[in-house]
């Protein structure tokens, strides 16, 4: 996919300029700097918004738990490396200097176990995975707990969202699109990214609102940049985001994942008949990510990307 290839090129550019990609202003009296966050994508949304399912769709494997018992209760950070030499069905887990092939099911169950332990105590330390696949863009995806959970405080959110080059994914289910102006995820994104230069809006679960004309009208307004004023400067994408289709695709042929994403696009097109087709589906989301990251890098590193 062209957008994924562009993200790979941006990732290479980032590595070439690693010394320039400080995430904070240089302090002459301090030798410490944070690592770059240009390729970080932070998912913001309430419980049930479909955050984990949207991230699974980006990964191309149903790794993150999406059922009620698997609700994200601690930050999960998935560092993705794209490797076109391996099968679309393969996932390579990297621990230290060792690599191990694992299944999406095994990773998902392991995460469910770790999240269950998190919920029984007060330990909300980040869960970190480094994975190599042929299906995912070279990004670091951060799945935060639902914003309406008690464990979510401002300090946890700011740890990830305030980093001034991380992309913020504001994820809102289609049924709540008419009330988008009151979305806490949108409010937080505006707080950390007032100009909207590193925010993308994602409207999930379109299929579940297929018969709700009020919701669909609100979704189409967002996609046409005709929503409430506070949404106008943010690119919006509509997805179904169900990892069920991804899981079933994994049991098919080598090309079945692409077929599943095309089927998602066709379904969205049939539901959102008046929406721009360039704003529909997983492919549109990857493209929006590539565009926002490139814009952000051009602002911060104009010389690097001038060619």
Automatic annotation (TrEMBL):
<dbReference type="GO" id="GO:0016020">
    <property type="term" value="C:membrane"/>
</dbReference>
<dbReference type="InterPro" id="IPR001401">
    <property type="entry name" value="Dynamin_GTPase"/>
</dbReference>
<dbReference type="GO" id="GO:0005737">
    <property type="term" value="C:cytoplasm"/>
</dbReference>
<dbReference type="InterPro" id="IPR027417">
    <property type="entry name" value="P-loop_NTPase"/>
</dbReference>
<protein>
    <submittedName>
        <fullName>Dynamin-2A-like</fullName>
    </submittedName>
</protein>
<comment type="similarity">
    <text>Belongs to the TRAFAC class dynamin-like GTPase superfamily. Dynamin/Fzo/YdjA family.</text>
</comment>
<dbReference type="InterPro" id="IPR045063">
    <property type="entry name" value="Dynamin_N"/>
</dbReference>
<keyword id="KW-0547">Nucleotide-binding</keyword>
<dbReference type="InterPro" id="IPR030381">
    <property type="entry name" value="G_DYNAMIN_dom"/>
</dbReference>
<keyword id="KW-0342">GTP-binding</keyword>
<dbReference type="GO" id="GO:0005874">
    <property type="term" value="C:microtubule"/>
</dbReference>
<dbReference type="Pfam" id="PF00350">
    <property type="entry name" value="Dynamin_N"/>
</dbReference>
<feature type="domain" description="Dynamin-type G">
    <location>
        <begin position="35"/>
        <end position="302"/>
    </location>
</feature>
<dbReference type="GO" id="GO:0003924">
    <property type="term" value="F:GTPase activity"/>
</dbReference>
<dbReference type="GO" id="GO:0005525">
    <property type="term" value="F:GTP binding"/>
</dbReference>
<dbReference type="GO" id="GO:0008017">
    <property type="term" value="F:microtubule binding"/>
</dbReference>
<dbReference type="InterPro" id="IPR022812">
    <property type="entry name" value="Dynamin"/>
</dbReference>
<dbReference type="InterPro" id="IPR019762">
    <property type="entry name" value="Dynamin_GTPase_CS"/>
</dbReference>
């Amino acid at each position: 996919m062209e957008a994924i290839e562009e993200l790979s090129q941006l990732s290479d550019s980032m590595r070439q300029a690693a010394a320039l990609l400080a995430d904070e202003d240089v302090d002459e009296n301090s030798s410490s700097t944070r690592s770059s966050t240009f390729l970080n994508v932070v998912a913001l949304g309430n419980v049930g918004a479909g955050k984990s399912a949207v991230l699974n769709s980006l990964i191309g494997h149903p790794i993150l738990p999406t059922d009620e018992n698997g609700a994200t209760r601690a930050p999960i950070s998935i560092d993705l490396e794209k490797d076109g030499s391996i099968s679309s069905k393969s996932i390579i887990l990297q621990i230290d200097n060792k690599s191990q092939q694992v299944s999406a099911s095994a990773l998902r169950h392991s995460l469910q176990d770790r999240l269950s332990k998190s919920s029984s105590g007060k330990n909300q330390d980040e869960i970190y995975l480094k994975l190599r696949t042929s299906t995912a863009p070279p990004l670091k995806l951060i799945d935060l707990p639902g914003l309406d959970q008690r464990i979510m405080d401002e300090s946890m959110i700011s740890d990830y969202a305030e980093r001034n080059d991380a992309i913020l994914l504001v994820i809102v289910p289609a049924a709540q699109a008419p009330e988008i102006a009151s979305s806490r995820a949108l409010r937080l994104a505006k707080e950390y990214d007032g100009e909207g230069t590193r925010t993308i809006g994602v409207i999930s679960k379109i299929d579940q609102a297929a018969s709700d004309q009020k919701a669909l009208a609100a979704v189409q307004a967002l996609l046409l940049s005709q929503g409430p004023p506070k949404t106008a400067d943010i690119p919006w994408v509509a997805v179904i985001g169900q990892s069920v289709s991804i899981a079933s695709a994994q049991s098919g042929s080598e090309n079945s994942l692409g077929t599943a994403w095309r089927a998602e696009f066709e379904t969205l097109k049939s539901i959102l008949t008046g929406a721009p087709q360039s704003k529909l589906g997983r492919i549109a989301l990857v493209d929006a990510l590539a565009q926002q990251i490139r814009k952000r890098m051009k602002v911060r590193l104009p010389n690097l990307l001038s060619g």
